[in-house]
Amino acid sequence: MTGYFKLDGRSIPFQPGQTIIQAAADADVYIPHLCYHPDFTPHGSCKLCSVQVNGRICSACTFPASDGLEVLSETSDLNARRQKITQMLFVEGNHFCPYCEKSGNCQLQAVAYHVKMLDSHFPHFFPQRPLDATHPDVLLDYDRCIFCALCVRASQEADGKNVFALSGRNINKHLIINSESGTLKDSDIAAEDKAVEVCPTGALLRRGQAYKTPIGQRQYDHQDIEQVSLQQEKAHDV
Amino acid sequence: MESFITTLVERHESQATRLLEMLREIQTTFHHISDDAIALLAAKVSIPRTQIISCIEFYSFLHRHYQGHYEILLSDSITDHMLGKQSLSTYLEDKLGLQPGQHNTHVSLNNTSCTGLCDQGPAALINGLAIANLNRQKIDQITALIQQEVPLSQWPASLFEIQDNIQQPGLVMKQPIMAGDSLKALFQCGLAEGLAEIERSGLRGRGGAGFKTALKWRFCAETDSTERFVVCNADEGEPGTFKDRVLLNRFADQVFEGMTLCAAIIGAKQGFLYLRGEYLFLYPKLHNILQQRRQQGLLGNAILGRDFAFDIEIRLGVGAYICGEESALIESLEGEPGIPRNRPPYPVTHGYLGQPTVVNNVETFLSAAAIMVYGADWFTACGSETSTGSKILSICGDCEKPGIYEYAFGVTIRQILNDCGAQDVFGVQVGGPSGSFIGADEFDRKLAFEDLATGGSFIIFNQQRALLDIVQNFTHFFAHESCGFCTPCRVGTRLLQKQLDKICDGHGSAGDVAELEKLCQLVKSTSHCGLGQTAANPILTTLQRYPERYEQHLKTIRYEPGFDLDAELEIARQLTGRDDPGAHLSQTGESS
After folding, report:
1. Which of A90, A124, B26, B118 is deepest in the core (most CB within 10 A)?
2. Cα(B342)–Cα(B114) distance, rounded to whole angstroms?
């Protein structure tokens, strides 16, 4: 089905099978997100892309676009919710931006800038999570994992492997590795895998890259994630 | 172990969809699922080990580490607490020398969410088998049996007696059908007319949501597919609900007939009864009834001599409340952790194995089978215009006669309270923790989809009960049962727990209550599924009605830190060997 829906009053065309977030991106409209990536099956878990569809809150990354929908995204109410959800992600893990080598290239940090997050608001959980430094080329810092499952999907869908999975439930959700020891060194992971590249935070890092680009000259240091994201979508479409 | 797993996998035809069945059997036999077992199973079923691990770590009744031959789980429903669970738990802990969450070489002790024995608590599960009416005498008996290492199969049957407690049967329970009558009636009038009859009856889903049953069946029947499935949701995990346990113990034949009726109408060949693991004790009986129905020609190939083949398989849950959500239930049937799917598409078009699937509650199938025999008029003569027929309730808490009651829709709360002998009532939790808390000024409200909807849970609290204890129990329940998929529920339900505990522990300020309410709204509005969307209801519905109960717990100061400053210094005191006044701190705003 093709047609138009209204997004914050603007008419947005869509192609058959598109979700709200895809059609919006094609029309140069950014909807904040972390677990969504145009290359992979949508997950719908981070809930940052929550929009109001005909009055009901839905995830823009999974909700199919259809003719005549009334969608609201840039409202003060929804932006306030996005800020709170981002804060939840920050307090759930251990995110210390000043010494994280992903700082400036981190989407979690960039989204926090975008939603104007100035503090963490909620009490921190300070979970105790180990570090997987067993692999010579890839580092896994569980402290920074936000359970977006992008590495899980990229490993399956792009790398043709099955290195990661999410396990456990409630606040004890955690990432696990498909290897006998449960560590990266025995897994099929390789530094050039899409699964490593796609991590929106500093949880999965390619080793030896740390400060090649100095802090201050990185992707989100001078550009809002809104622009970066839309440019990437454009490049992706080409 | 290798030969055990080889045989097991062969018996389950190496089907990954049957992973939970296989894991349950390994757990039962070896009391844990070892890394070796995981590796073997992964190789034999050809699935990644991570799928197995994520299931074990998702479902409460599966463990990766050995916890002894006797696994004791104490039901942690609010009703168990009202019946004296805490002192019994302490008694048991002392006898075993274990705290909840601990184990020794042959026994483990822990808590578990409501086991559906709220009318006969406190309840426990031992190696998955239910024990009701726990008391000190039974605990003595149990600990002695454990001490002597008597195998569970040789324990006295009297320990495992479960009562039905049917107090007041109504329309459906008073007139059970004869096996086969519903199907005969359907074939007599034809499938289209049969569905029309269900439609005329106005039957709506009995799980609580109230979707029109005939409409669901019609949508499913009209899909363009060669394969369809019928699923009976018997994963009643809502604390305070136990009607499906009784319905399956008494009327399973009729429930299976309702499923078969649905299968004939939508064109399904395979059905599943998803039975919550807590009702393991019902399994042998249900299995026999299915066998009987096959012998009677009511299941299997050529049902009633017609060109209609259908069979039902029982699948057991393994301890996850979320699997009561239909798409999570389907994930579980497929051998995955019970994580609710993104919708649309809905199960009615993309359900089990991506095929159109009808998922209905036990009571819905029971009623549908009766409607086919007695007619739509029989059903609509009972109830209200938008809520036809009857509703079967599980009544528990502070009343003289807890148990099963069946009412015509439209009955008032006051009437129900009178019937079950409830006095000095402070409030009623209608629909379980995910429903709402009703106070005395609302007892003239009616039980109906248009007023108070419930899946069957009805918990009564008298004036002596502390409201915040109830709310705390429910809030902890949701935080524990959250599947952890989406941010607002995974983090939010745990933040709700922290924030409420802070208030209950006497560390709250006025700002904390305001913050609590904001957090409730966020979790409710942005969560992925019904669990998160209703997890804040216990707080929201009571905060609205009884703000003073929260205020009583508050300190007068405007700000209180979220932690106990002095307690935080304990480790430092221990390390330095100090306990002088200078090694202690008072909370902000207080001067000691």
Report:
1. B118
2. 27
Alpha helices (H) along B31-111: 35-45, 49-58, 78-82, 85-96
Average pLDDT, chain B: 95
Beta-strand pair B270-275/B311-316: parallel
Residue recorded with tokens 């509703």: B391
Residue B556 lies inside a defined structural domain of this protein:
no
Of B238, B198, B239, B242, nearest in space to B220 by CA: B198
Q: Is the pLDDT of residue B591 over 50?
A: no
Q: Are strands B107-112 and B70-75 parallel, antiparallel or unpaired?
A: parallel
- How many Cβ pairs within 8 Å bridge chains A and B? 111
Q: Which residues in chain B are closer than 8 Å to A162, comparing Cβ atoms?
A: 48, 50
Are B132 and B95 in contact by the 8 Å Cβ rule? The answer is: no
Cα separation, B389 vs B372, in Å, equals 13
Q: Please tell me whether residue B388 adopts helix, strand or coil conformation.
A: strand
A165 closest CB neighbour out of B50, B492, B528: B50
- A93 to chain B: closest CA residue: B491
Give the range of the structural domain holding residue B586, as residue numbers without chain letter: 563-592
Strand order across the B124-126 sheet: B107-112, B70-75, B124-126, B129-131
What ipTM was reported for this prediction?
Answer: 0.97
State how far the Cα of B483 lies from the Cα of B529, in Å rounded to an integer: 10
Please state whether the peptide bond connecting residue A32 to the residue before it is cis, i.e. omega within 30 degrees of 0.
no
- The two tokens of residue A15 are 């192609």
Domain count, chain B: 6
Average pLDDT over residues B231-240: 96
Which long-range CB contacts under 8 A does B208-212 form with residues at least 24 apart?
Answer: B208/B238, B208/B431, B208/B435, B208/B453, B208/B454, B208/B455, B208/B456, B209/B453, B210/B387, B210/B449, B210/B453
Residues from chain B that touch A85, judged by Cβ atoms under 8 A, are 487-488, 522, 526
All domains in chain A, ordered by first residue: 3-74 (3.10.20.740), 82-225 (3.30.70.20)
